[in-house]
Design goal:
heterodimer; A: 318 residues; 13 helices; B: mainly alpha; 5 strands; 69% helix
């Protein structure tokens, strides 16, 4: 946070816009990819934008109470706040925002804020399907967070820092990705990403055929629109976080300078996050849905083991 | 002389409440409340000073140093608010004189424990606090509630005997009971040769702090006690165990290295972690708000015990910070449970739901307290969690312990949500329509305690500074603490002020947007107008999902849920009963057998005389 506040504010708005655009396009791409895999034509890539426009344009909106009314706000605020504390490009050239003001432990907790706010709103609607979805979602969190924390603790102790910026510096300076320096931690984190995205086989929360889209079922119009915006930004946040942590981040303060440099950095970021995103998407295409207890137990087995190996690796590293 | 005034006000208040109750029941509560606030005011405005006196050859030493002050504030602040809450909460209940006299005496006991600087007065106050709290724990027996007070008193007695044994042994070995003398002589070190003295004392403290496996009394007793006292019971009294641990372990922490510190970190740290994880799993399956909170208290104390066990700068700060924060948010949560109990008649999740519109202020308190408990930024609870994790990762390198703690606090989201959902969300019952918000006498203490979580979320330094002085007063390094920037030993920082203001600004902006966009066409429906396959619930239908709420999670955890710590103690009890049943057979009632015992004893004496004398 140096310099003029106007520039910072512009940076924040630009970062949010970037995350929103990329996140929405990824959502559209996912629909397209799934459609092609199922031998359908599928909607156009920009379909999510059209959906959003339609939702925001709805004249009648219904809500069930204050918590329900504010639920999409929590989701959006959590997503944008998390975005501001994650370095989007390396080196503080652009979009530094608040990256020096929060560390990984903080991010870990911030990332559940949206889900919990959403859960409260869903609870107030009185829809039993929503509450079942929340119960499943919270159970799932206890599943995938544990391997994720194991992998984070592993890299924290390996590099003696809890700061995301420091970890990026290390990867840029040495040219070694942390995915290479601690493969087990990377593996555990990848498994957690599968859970974080709630795609098949972990799509138990919204499970269309069982719960009538669960938590989402009472949201429509501007509320669903805000949820969609928040969800898209949050998807981008998760991808950037993993890229920064394990895949070296994007952009380089020396190699890319000026506007062209930023553009190149963004291209690098888009390529990396897209490839990362395709992992949960493509697994989702071929896998059927788990039951809740199977999903939770899945994370407590192999991913947990990889995480523990990651910690042991980190202790004996060097 | 402040100490004498505070104790005096509390004791006189207790007596006054007891006798006023006979004159006019209406005034019992207000008199007790006045005594509570009077004691807090006396402590705030009068210099604490030092009190020394001798009785029966023992010297007593009370002093309000920074550490005593920190814990005294937890006790007096929370108690004064709880007494204010109590005025309306206990309205119409029987035996109020008994209730308030015990309450105030108990507060006096806790205050005494905090200011005691010698083991004897520490023990005397400790017992005053235990016995009066036992009287309060069995208060509801008058209303035919099965209070399980016996569990509490048995475990407390075990702790008390352990402490008394330690005190006698310490007196025999060191000829003084002053903490400072004992500390200087190394009485609290495991390496001193008298390792049993600190172990026995820690056992006594562990009972009060409800550490696994001595915790079984807490979840049984907390829900059955009147909620206005449970707030203090869980919020302040359990912290006396933490204070005791700090006092005993200081000597070991100061040495900074060595096997003793490693031992403390491993044994106490893991016990704390296991307590947290176990109690969290139990809290998740509870169907009553009060039971849930009781288990949650045990879990939170587990974090604090782990934090104490680190003995490092961040860890000890986490312990003190969480001790105060837990008093604030758990105090207000028990008050919420009491408010719901008073208005709705029950706190069973399966019987009530959808109180948010009936009791909005109570819900607000519950929401703030729960967010703080779950450790979600930007409220105060997050800071405590952050300190604890960072200390375990970067200072004591307890990597797998941190995972256990993290598992506990992630699972805590489940019961946190259940508490809010069970009482306040979901579809409204028809009968719940006449439920109203509680009186402001009850709301103000609840909101005041919530304010602690909100303020410390952005300015945790308000607690860091007195806590740092408290640690320095017992000779532990506390270092510099910023008002709102947290930093670990690697120099990584989290600025909670930036976090808080970012979240706040974004929240307000988006809340305004979503409220004013299409405001005219936004319809606010009831909880019965939902989309359930085109079926509209009839007025008497309630579709709220409450039974077996976390069944999938319970299935995932599986086998762990089948074991119970109570079973362990019952087995131990049965084994002891069998053992003593056997011993009893010695007393046959036959004079000849007794004569034989005497002869056997004499023979044994003669045989082993060289070894015994």
């Amino acid at each position: 946070m140096t310099g003029n506040w106007l520039i910072e504010l512009t940076g924040i708005v630009l970062t949010a816009l970037l995350a929103f655009t990329v996140g929405m396009f990824y959502g559209g791409l996912r629909r397209k990819v799934i459609a092609r895999a199922q031998n359908r034509v599928g909607p156009p890539v920009y379909q999510n934008f059209l959906d959003l426009l339609k939702l925001q344009g709805k004249t009648t909106n219904v809500t069930h109470g204050l918590m329900t009314h504010l639920a999409p706000v929590w989701v959006l605020v959590a997503a944008i706040t998390a975005l501001l504390f994650i370095p989007v490009l390396h080196g503080g050239l652009w979009f530094p925002n608040f990256t020096f003001k929060g560390d990984l432990i903080f991010l870990l907790y911030l990332m559940v804020m949206g889900s919990l706010g959403m859960a409260l709103g869903v609870g107030e609607t009185g829809n039993p399907n929503g509450a079942i979805g929340v119960s499943r979602g919270l159970s799932l969190i206890t599943g995938y967070e544990i391997p994720f924390v194991l992998s984070l603790v592993a890299i924290m102790i390996q590099f003696h820092t809890t700061s995301l910026t420091d970890l990026m510096h290390y990867q840029q300076a040495t040219g070694h990705w942390i995915a290479r320096e601690n493969p087990f931690a990377f593996l555990a984190a990848l498994f957690s990403v599968l859970g974080m995205f709630h795609y098949s086989p972990f799509d138990i929360i919204g499970a269309p055929a069982e719960l009538a889209s669960g938590p989402m079922s009472e949201f429509g119009g501007k509320y669903l629109g805000s949820l969609m915006t928040g969800g898209s930004i949050f998807a981008f946040v998760k991808l950037v976080l993993i890229t920064d942590l394990f895949l070296g981040g994007a952009g380089h303060p020396d190699a890319y300078t000026g506007a062209a440099g930023v553009l190149l950095g963004l291209v690098e970021l888009v390529i990396k996050t897209f490839l990362l995103y395709m992992i949960p998407v493509s697994i989702g295409i071929v896998m059927p849905r788990f039951r809740t207890e199977q999903a939770v137990r899945f994370f407590w087995r192999w991913p947990l083991l990889f995480g523990a190996l990651g910690i042991i690796w980190a202790v004996f590293w060097k | 002389m402040g100490i004498i005034y505070v104790l005096g006000i509390l004791i006189i208040g207790a007596l006054a409440a007891f006798f006023v109750d006979d004159l006019n029941r209406k005034w019992t509560g207000p008199v007790a409340m006045l005594a509570g606030f009077g004691a807090a005011a006396a402590f705030a405005f009068l210099p604490g000073g030092i009190v020394r006196w001798r009785i029966l050859g023992f010297s007593m030493h009370w002093e309000t140093d920074a550490l005593a002050g920190f814990f005294a504030w937890i006790v007096l602040g929370l108690s004064a608010l709880a007494l204010m809450y109590s005025v309306k909460y206990m309205e119409g209940k029987a035996r109020q004189g008994y209730f308030y006299a015990s309450f105030l005496t108990s507060v006096a006991g806790m205050f005494g424990v905090a200011v005691s600087k010698d083991l004897l007065s520490f023990f005397i106050f400790w017992e005053i606090m235990t016995w009066t709290s036992f009287l309060l724990a069995i208060y509801n027996a008058y209303y035919g509630v099965e209070t399980k007070g016996i569990k509490y008193i048995i475990f407390s007695a075990i702790g008390a005997y352990a402490m008394l044994t330690a005190i006698v042994l310490a007196l025999g070995q060191y000829h003084s009971l002053e903490f400072s003398d004992l500390m200087a002589a190394g009485a609290f070190r495991f390496s001193s040769g008298n390792w049993y003295i600190p172990v026995l004392l820690l056992l006594g403290f562990a009972v009060k702090a409800a550490v696994l496996p001595l915790h079984v009394w807490a979840p049984a007793v907390y829900p059955k006690t009147p909620m206005s006292f449970t707030a203090v019971f869980s919020g302040a009294m359990s912290k006396m165990g933490i204070l005791g641990m700090l006092l005993i372990l200081t000597g070991i922490f100061r040495s900074a290295t060595g096997w003793e510190l490693t031992l403390v970190r491993w044994v106490l740290g893991w016990l704390g972690g296991l307590t947290a994880a176990w109690a969290t799993l139990q809290a998740i399956r509870q169907n009553d708000a009060k039971d849930l909170l009781a288990w949650s208290s045990v879990a939170q104390l587990g974090y604090i015990v782990t934090a104490v066990s680190t003995g490092t700068r961040l860890g000890l700060m986490a312990a003190l910070y969480l001790a105060l924060l837990h008093a604030a948010f758990k105090g207000s949560l028990f008050m919420v449970a009491g408010a719901v109990e008073k208005q709705a008649g029950t706190t069973d999740f399966r019987r009530i739901s959808g109180l948010i519109k009936r009791m909005p202020w109570t819900f607000l308190t519950a929401l703030i307290a729960i967010i703080s408990l779950a450790g979600i930024p930007p409220l105060g609870g997050f800071v405590g969690k952050w300190l604890l994790y960072e200390s375990l990762i970067s200072e004591t390198h307890a990597y797998f312990l941190v995972i256990l703690i993290f598992f506990a606090s992630t699972s805590a989201f489940l019961y946190s949500y259940r508490f809010l959902f069970g009482l306040f969300l979901g579809q409204e019952e028809e009968e719940a329509k006449q439920i109203t918000e509680v009186s402001w006498w009850m709301l103000i203490p609840m909101l005041a305690l919530s304010a602690v979580s909100v303020v410390t979320g952005m300015y945790p330094g308000l607690i860091f500074r007195p806590a740092a002085r408290a640690l320095e007063s017992i000779g532990l390094p506390a270092g510099q603490w910023d008002m709102s920037i947290l930093s670990n030993v690697w120099g990584n920082q989290t600025d909670v002020f930036t976090v808080g203001s970012t979240v706040g600004i974004l929240f307000v902006l988006w809340a305004l947007f979503i409220t004013f966009k299409g405001k005219k066409n936004t319809r606010w429906l009831t909880t019965k107008e939902i989309s359930t396959s085109g079926e509209i619930p009839a007025p008497e239908d309630n579709f709220t999902f409450q039974r077996g709420f976390f069944q999938p999670f319970e299935r995932a955890v599986g086998r762990l849920y089948r074991s119970s710590m109570d079973q362990l103690w019952e087995d131990i009890g049965a084994a002891l009963e069998a053992f003593f049943g056997f011993i009893r057979k010695i007393y046959t009632g036959n004079a000849q057998t007794y004569a034989m015992y005497v002869i056997i004893f004499v023979v044994l004496l003669i045989l082993f005389r060289n070894y015994i004398f």
